[in-house]
C-alpha cells in the first residue's frame, strides 16, 4: 500500500483557513482605520457633535443621515436594539439599506459620563497602540425600551466618522426588572388601616388573589412521564 503525502506548498491543496464547510462562512478580518493625526482634539466636543447629529436624524426619521455618519467600512453591531434578531451590519450603504427595509426604533441617545472611562476619551483601538481614535459609552431609548452602547470614532480626511457602533437592549418598557428603587417594599410604616405585612402580601401574590398569572402551563403528561422514569 502506498501513501501519498501532499505538501502544504502543493498548489492543488486547499488549506483549512481557505476551506469553507457547507452552511458556514469564513469571517473576514477587520481592517483598522488610520490613526488620528489630530493632537489637540476635544473628545467630548467631537462625540457631542456626532450624538447631536444622530438625535436630529432620529427626530426627523432621517435614517439616511445616520448612515452617512459612518465610515465606508464602518460597523453597527446590535443585540436586540434594532430588531428581535442579532445583527452585524458592515458599511454605510448596507446600513442605509437595513434602515430602509426595517426602520430605526431608536428615539434618543445620550452620552454616558458617569465615569471617566465611559466618557469620551482619546485612546488606542488596537492592542499595540498604533491606531488611536475616540471612544465613548452611551444610553439610548427606543420604541420598545432602553439600552446601552459604545461607539468608536475614527478621523478620515479631517472628519470624524463612526468606525464601530454597538447597541444592546437592557430593559423592555413596562416590564422593567424589580431591582433598586423598583424593589417591592418589605414594610410600610404609618397609620394605614387594614394594611398587610410582607408575608401576607406575598401569600396573596402566590395565590393570585388580586391579579391573574402572566403564564399558565397546561398539561400533566410530562409529570407522569417523569414519575415513570424515577419509579414513583
TrEMBL record:
Highest taxon in the source lineage: Eukaryota
Stretches the record annotates as Disordered: 175-196
Name of the protein in its database record: SnoaL-like domain-containing protein
Amino acid at each position: 500500500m502506498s501513501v501519498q503525502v501532499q505538501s502544504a506548498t502543493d498548489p492543488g491543496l486547499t488549506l483549512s483557513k481557505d476551506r469553507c464547510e457547507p452552511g458556514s462562512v469564513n469571517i473576514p478580518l477587520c481592517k483598522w482605520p488610520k490613526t488620528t493625526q489630530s493632537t489637540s482634539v476635544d473628545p467630548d466636543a467631537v462625540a457631542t457633535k456626532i450624538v447631536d447629529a444622530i438625535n436630529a436624524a432620529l427626530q426627523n426619521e432621517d435614517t439616511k443621515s445616520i448612515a452617512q455618519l459612518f465610515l465606508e467600512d464602518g460597523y453597527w453591531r446590535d443585540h436586540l436594539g434594532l430588531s428581535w434578531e442579532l445583527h452585524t451590519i458592515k458599511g454605510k450603504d448596507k446600513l442605509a439599506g437595513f434602515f430602509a427595509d426595517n426602520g430605526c426604533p431608536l428615539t434618543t441617545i445620550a452620552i454616558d459620563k458617569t465615569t471617566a472611562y465611559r466618557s469620551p476619551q482619546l485612546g488606542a483601538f488596537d492592542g499595540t497602540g498604533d491606531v488611536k481614535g475616540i471612544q465613548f459609552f452611551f444610553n439610548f431609548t427606543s420604541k420598545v425600551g432602553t439600552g446601552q452602547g459604545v461607539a468608536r470614532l475614527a478621523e478620515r480626511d479631517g472628519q470624524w466618522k463612526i468606525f464601530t457602533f454597538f447597541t444592546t437592549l437592557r430593559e423592555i418598557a413596562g416590564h422593567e426588572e424589580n431591582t433598586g428603587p423598583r424593589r417591592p417594599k418589605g414594610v410600610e410604616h404609618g397609620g394605614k388601616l387594614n394594611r398587610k405585612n410582607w408575608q401576607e402580601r406575598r401569600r396573596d401574590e402566590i395565590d393570585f388573589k388580586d391579579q391573574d398569572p402572566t403564564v399558565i402551563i397546561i398539561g400533566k403528561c410530562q409529570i407522569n412521564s417523569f414519575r415513570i422514569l424515577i419509579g414513583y
